[in-house]
Amino acid sequence: MTTDMFIGFGTVVNVVTVVGGAGLGVLVGHRLPPRTRELVTTTLGLFTLVLGARGVASGISEALGAAVGTDSRLLVVLGALLIGGIGGSLLQIEKRLDRGAELLHDRFASRTEGGRFVEGAVTSTLVFCVGPLSILGSLSDGLGHGAEQLLVKAVMDGFAAIAFASSFGIGVMAAALPLALYQGLLTLLGLALGNFLPAAQLDALGAAGGVILLGLGIRLMGVKQIPVGDLLPALVAAPAIVAIVGLFR
């Protein structure tokens, strides 16, 4: 399903919620009880599960069936996730993302005078930009599949901005610029992919992304800390597997 909004709409809304949430956090963020933030996160986790299930259902399409065989559609997605997950685990993508975020935070936030502003900007930028939903949502928006994933992320980031700004102050607003650049570039990448990848390969990518979203939803709900970052290579493996299978049909 697609939205009637323009491509890039999700990132625009995401930036607005960060700026608005930071402003609200400076004013009243300290009054928001932790249980409210936890409830919001759990609710967004549930909704992420819905988005993931829809992504899988739409990705297992007739176009994918025509390319790899009707009975092989799920096997292609499973193969992509296994290959991508093994590769991502061996490369330790999840750990590297976390470690890189920590290094950037320590370098820029703790060694600079006027640290509250800088720490707020750096910390919130890392939280808003380093994550599977930022990548999946931006690519989906660029591919023309709609901005729903980024709209969910926008709500999450808005509440996070309230919490960060209540501690770090107005510096959290500065995260809006790198967020716009990062997700904007990923959206343009999705737009480029949509212009030259066949429908079957795009659907396989979408189905693999849907499974990753399911894992993210489970993690947001606190059920299990699935290392979804390690599964991101499946987004590359899925179209590649479809292309390879297509050569032998």
What does this molecule look like?
With 249 residues, the protein is an all-alpha fold. The chain is 78% helix and 0% strand. The model has no long low-confidence stretch (mean pLDDT 85).
- First-residue to last-residue Cα separation: 29 Å
Summed over residues and divided by their number, the pLDDT gives a mean of 85
Q: Cα-atom Rg, whole angstroms? A: 19 Å
Largest sheet: none
Range of strand content: under 5%
Instruction: Specify the number of helices.
Output: 11
Number of separate domains: 1
- The percent of residues in helical segments reads over 70%
What's the shape? Answer: elongated
List unreliable stretches of 5+ residues: none
Order of SSEs:
HHHHHHHHHHH
* Helix-and-strand structural type: mainly alpha
Based on DSSP secondary structure assignment, what is the total number of beta strands? 0
Give a quick precis of the structure.
The protein is mainly α and about 250 residues long. Helices cover about 80% and strands about 0% of the residues.
List keywords for this structure.
mainly alpha, 249 residues, 78% helix, single chain, elongated
Topology diagram in text:
Blueprint: H1 9-28, H2 34-59, H3 62-68, H4 73-91, H5 93-109, H6 115-129, H7 132-142, H8 148-168, H9 176-196, H10 199-220, H11 234-247
Helix pairs in contact: 1-8, 1-9, 2-8, 2-10, 3-10, 4-10, 4-11, 5-6, 6-8, 7-8, 7-9, 7-10, 10-11
